[in-house]
Write a structure and sequence with these properties.
The protein is of the alpha/beta class and 276 residues long. It has helices spanning 26-37, 52-60, 81-95, 102-111, 126-134, 148-160, 204-219, 234-255, 264-275, and strands spanning 15-19, 41-46, 63-66, 138-143, 166-170, 192-196, 223-226. The strands form two sheets. It has a four-stranded parallel β-sheet, with helices on both faces. A three-stranded parallel β-sheet has the order 1-2-3, with helices on both faces. Strand 4 (138-143), helix 6 and strand 5 form a beta-alpha-beta unit.
Length: 276
């Protein structure tokens, strides 16, 4: 959308991306308006053509990407991460802000074999197996570097899709404070579990941190689980993690006997907020 020609390479600090799946996320739109006031070059991405974000884009002649939710029938943003992740990649590649090619992205998508589908039995399905292990647990997620966004999104999916209490930490950030908070409340280690995302593509120092961190957590009586892949490139690794996370949260919702698409408390909050 828009007919401006933008040189995004001039200054990374002057660029801004308004990302809202629905096109109505108040925080994203508010921040975008501030960026426009500062004369930043602004892009957008969303799914709704009649949304507040599209109205802003038309008013300010912003460039961006509107995607169709064909492959996300429930219309819940957390269950359609492929649209936003690949949409972001496409926009950033086009502007030259990241130095990868569309060919690399397509190859990464092709390399992600879906071994988590419903028709794949428990014994061969890592996502189903992980859902069983996370049942009735408070889930701490831990990753580093390029996988941080994936576990942030997974925490959202666990909370909203599986209705399961979860939190995420980044290593080495976790090493500075979380380890000292493992002692209390007593017996919390019986209901909490840590899920690590180690990778052969992390920096060497971070790879070493995982072994030591696991030892500390286990000495405090907590179980440590792992989702570990050996990948040749970070994009493929990230895509595989996102797919695994999405299916795991869905299977956990089934085990918890809840509707994965409904978010009653979020809907209640928004309704009450509108009254004020």
């Amino acid at each position: 959308m828009g007919n401006k020609s933008i040189d995004f390479k001039t200054s990374l600090l002057s660029n801004f991306l308004i990302s809202s799946y629905s096109g109505g996320t108040a925080e994203a739109i508010s921040a975008g308006k501030e960026a426009i006031k500062l004369n930043s070059e602004v892009l957008f991405i969303c799914s709704k053509r009649d949304s507040e974000l599209i109205k802003l884009a038309k008013e300010k002649s912003l460039l961006g990407y509107i995607f169709k939710e064909k492959f996300n029938p429930c219309l819940q943003p957390r269950l359609g991460p492929g649209y936003t992740v690949c949409g972001h990649l496409g926009l950033l590649i086009k502007t030259g802000l990241i130095n990868i090619s569309f060919k690399e992205v397509k190859r990464a998508v092709k390399n992600v074999k879906n071994s988590y589908r419903m028709d794949i039995p428990l014994g061969e399905n890592l996502a189903k197996q992980m859902a069983v292990k996370l049942k009735d647990k408070f889930v701490f997620l831990a990753s580093s570097e390029f996988l941080n966004g994936a576990i942030h999104g997974f925490a959202n999916q666990l909370n909203e899709t599986a209705k399961t209490n979860s939190a995420y930490h980044y290593i080495p950030e976790l090493n500075h404070h979380r380890m000292e908070g493992l002692k209390y409340p007593e017996k919390f280690n019986q209901m909490a579990v840590f899920l690590f995302y180690p990778s052969n593509l992390y920096g060497k120092r971070n790879q070493v941190r995982y072994k030591i961190t696991q030892e500390v957590i286990e000495k405090n009586g907590y179980q440590v689980l792992k989702y570990e892949l050996q990948s040749k490139d970070k994009i493929s690794h990230t895509f595989k993690a996102i797919l695994f996370n999405s299916y795991t949260s869905f299977y956990l919702a089934i085990l918890n006997k809840v509707n994965p698409s409904k978010i009653p408390w979020v809907d209640h909050f928004k309704k009450e907020l509108k009254k004020l």
